[in-house]
Specification:
16 helices, alpha/beta, 6-stranded parallel β-sheet, globular, 13 strands, 15% strand
């Protein structure tokens, strides 16, 4: 069997890493394609180093653009490689434009498709990721699912049960494998942060950062929290541009060194590498996010999480984990965060099969 995997954005890297390691361990011929959807070192190159993934054999270098442009560029560039390589399976992960583009290209060429993280649904088609998930799952031959809701969604959509495999979460494979290294970095300590004494923020979704009124409200809520504890915000490049565009850069401070004892305030950092961000998550009192992957990681870490969206495609993080959906209303964000900072946090548990062995199950099924 010959497998070709396609990744394009930083969440993909965490998902593919344990699968690549297991394929190498089993001696399965495999090639990794990086589309270049995220293409600067801070958003891409550092992740391959942190995750100990061999450099991609094929780089397409598609760069940024509209959703249509990215999808089309990946399809055009990838087709030639699929024709030359003729893999038995194209393995795609997650829900980014590179995922759906690779699935479409492979399907047109009659190559089998395996989708890791299949079946997740927000039921909100205004999210580009939801369209990508629906199309990829409709084309996939093997659908590897992280949580029971994914199985239910696929069965309801008419997918044959023999194509659906509940295998667990490869994101958690990566987290468990690298958590000791991340903690050894002592990123919070180097920033002068007290474990359990700060909030961590990640925002990037257009629905939150492109709407000036919504974004200003979220930043106002973060400013209120920053009067109680340091609020640490590793800022995605696109998000930073939006902060500057609405004239809100002045509410942030940038640490020149470790924060002084007792410091509060809203602090922004450059984009963090995977290990640094994992270390910050693991020691936070609270994480505020619009990222699906962060919802999963905080659930695995037992760290309270507030999701600044109206929905989630990962309901197990709410039903069993530490995640709470609060939307974007500033007063609701502040109220929920204050409750957690005052020690009134909800308990959570790690979902079934989030045990660090999902990649082993996936590769065993592929070979079988």
């Amino acid at each position: 069997m010959k497998i070709l995997s396609v990744v394009g954005a930083r969440p993909n890297f965490m998902k593919i890493a344990p699968i690549v390691r297991e394929l190498l361990r089993r001696g399965v011929p495999h090639r990794l394609v990086h589309t270049g959807q995220h293409y600067d070192a801070a958003m891409s190159g550092d992740f391959f180093r942190d995750l100990a993934i061999p450099p991609p054999e094929i780089s397409l270098g598609v760069g940024s653009g509209t959703h249509a442009e990215q999808t089309a560029h990946v399809m055009l560039a990838l087709e030639a490689h699929l024709l030359a390589e003729r893999p038995d399976v194209v393995l795609v992960v997650g829900d980014v434009n590179s995922t759906v583009a690779a699935a479409l290209t492979a399907a047109k060429l009659g190559i089998a498709i395996a989708h890791v993280e299949a079946g997740l649904r927000s039921f909100d088609r205004s999210m580009p990721e939801e369209i990508n998930r629906l199309v990829t799952d409709a084309l996939a031959d093997l659908l590897f699912v992280t949580e029971p809701s994914g199985v239910e969604n696929l069965c309801r959509e008419g997918v044959a049960q023999e194509r659906i495999h509940l295998v667990g979460n490869v994101m958690i494979d990566t987290l468990l494998a690298h958590l000791p290294r991340a903690r050894a970095l002592d990123t919070p300590g180097r920033l002068g942060l007290v474990p359990g004494g700060y909030a961590l923020v990640t925002l990037h979704r257009p629905s939150n950062v492109d709407d000036a009124e919504v974004f200003a409200g979220i930043l106002g809520a973060l400013g209120q929290l920053a009067r109680r504890v340091p609020v640490i915000f590793p800022v995605h490049p696109r998000t930073r541009k939006r902060v500057e565009a609405i004239g809100a850069a002045g509410i942030f401070r940038e640490p020149a060194g470790p924060l002084p004892p007792g410091a509060t305030g809203l602090w922004w950092l450059p984009p963090s590498g995977y290990l640094e961000f994992l270390a910050l998550q693991a020691a936070a009192a609270l994480v505020l996010t619009d990222s699906g992957g962060v919802q999963e990681e905080t659930t695995a870490l037992g760290v309270p999480c507030l999701t600044l969206r109206a929905n989630t495609e990962r309901p197990v993080t709410v039903g069993e984990g530490t995640n709470i959906i609060v939307g974007v209303d500033p007063s609701r964000i502040v109220e929920a965060a204050t409750t957690i900072l005052e020690g009134r946090r909800r308990p959570g548990r790690v979902p079934a099969l989030w045990d660090g062995h999902a990649a082993e199950r996936i590769v065993a099924i592929l070979l079988r």
